[in-house]
Amino acid sequence: MFIKSAVMPVLAAASAHSVDVSPPMMLPFGTLLLLIAIGPLAFPRWWHRNYPKVSLGLGLLTACYYFFVLKHGERLLHVAHEYVSFIALIGSLFVVAGGIHITVKGESRPLINVLFLFVGAVMANIIGTTGASMLMIRPWIRMNRYRITAFHVVFFIFIVSNVGGCLTPLGDPPLFLGYLKGVPFLWVIANCWKAWLIVVGTLLGVFYILDSLNFRQPPKEVSDRMTGSEKWHFAGHHNIFFVAVIVGAVLANRLLPPLVPDAIMVGAAAASFVSTPKPVHELNDFNFDPIKEVAWLFAGIFATMVPVIDYLELHAGELGLHSAQQFYWATGTLSAFLDNAPTYLTFLAAAMGDQGLSVNSGQDVGRFIEQSNDFLVAISLAAVFFGAVTYIGNGPNFMVKNIAQQVGVRTPSFFGYVLRYAVPVLIPIFALVSLLFFSRWRVF
């Protein structure tokens, strides 16, 4: 199925939402994403001290262009509202997840590990990939402490931190951005569950084989302590209520006045933080540094990506992308090396712009789903799945790596992760998804 060229009346309607920006104004967006990708690796100390200034400075450059040059400041005000909703969801789930602690005693066998990862994949759709990763990575390390290796951390990132969160807008930031733009909440699970089941199931199968080999060949002094008997203890049960409140606020997003759902989510997070006993937060090593980094960086991302989206809506045909399969691989490739949330929105804007539709119109989003549902499926799956290909593809990846390193677990280097695990494991599975869902030989 190919995207058809836009007819002039529809193009005119799209233009009402978009502004024909100067191409150089897309440079702040590219610069910020490039710095996010290389900063933590090339100059970590400087980046850690200055990333808020960099993000804010590039965002202000774009804001000044819209307010004072284009005289179209209302465009930025609309994006500011979307940013508040985005941070309210991500931040509230992060805080509530930090109030739940799981203690595991005993050593897990391969089948128990598979079950744990599957539960993590499901949880990622309820409390987000960031929340699920922060909640479950420490228990994961503790339950495998006598034999944990790099692949345990890597497959946790694959499944819990990325591909697991593909069933709801709560699961991964790209899908929530789509929800804010008008994609129905239940559209995701209705259209992505088959691919989710194939990818998660295949990854769990590969992990089971590797973990079984690892379990059978431990040193003698280690095997004597591997009883296979696990005892679980949960602290912070009351935070499940606050998770339900946040989910309810998201579901009611379009029924309530603006900013009310965001206030409900922030209130739930505040109540969770205050009511959670301090020892629970200490056991989780909870602090606000990760969410502060997300808030600063995404402030710049939301601002600088506006010219990119506006330009692509009016010049999408110049990209040379005409099929769902092409959008799948293009979105996936950039999602692997850039942040997957703005990548999702950029290619969604391009796909809709090629049909003369605006990503800033809820009605146009609905029309796009009716006309080109496969394209939205391709963009959604690629943005979520390919975020697992590198440490920088999705926010939780580096957070999980750092937590593992803090407790003495050896993790792969950036290129070791990509070459030893992501390329041989993930790329064939993602190619299978492309074949089954978007090729001329498609099955689904």
Helix content percent band = over 70%
Q: Record the strand order, biggest sheet.
A: 1-2
The total beta strand count reads: 2
SS strand fraction: under 5%
Structural class: mainly alpha
**Number of domain units:** 1
Helix-strand pattern:
HHHHEHHHHHEHHHHHHHHHH
Give start-end ranges of low-pLDDT stretches: 1-16, 220-228
State the end-to-end distance: 14 Å
Measured on Cα atoms, how large is the radius of gyration? 22 Å
Identify the overall geometry.
globular
Major sheet description: 2 strands, antiparallel
Mean pLDDT, rounded to whole units?
Answer: 85
Number of helices: 19
Keywords:
444 residues, mainly alpha
Tell me what you see in this structure.
The chain is an all-alpha fold and about 450 residues long. The protein has 19 helices and two strands. Strands 1-2 form a two-stranded antiparallel ribbon. The chain is globular. It starts with 7 loop residues before the first helix and ends in a 6-residue tail after the last helix.
Summarize, please:
The protein is mostly helical and 444 residues long. It is 70% helix and 2% strand. The protein is globular.
Give the helices and strands, then pairings.
Layout: H1 8-15, H2 27-42, H3 44-69, H4 73-97, E1 101-105, H5 110-143, H6 150-159, H7 173-181, H8 187-216, H9 220-223, E2 231-235, H10 239-251, H11 260-275, H12 278-283, H13 289-315, H14 324-337, H15 340-353, H16 362-371, H17 373-385, H18 395-406, H19 414-438
Antiparallel strand pairs: 1-2
Helix pairs in contact: 2-3, 2-13, 3-4, 3-13, 4-5, 4-7, 4-10, 4-11, 4-13, 5-6, 5-8, 5-18, 6-8, 7-15, 8-19, 10-11, 13-15, 14-15, 14-17, 15-17, 16-17, 17-19
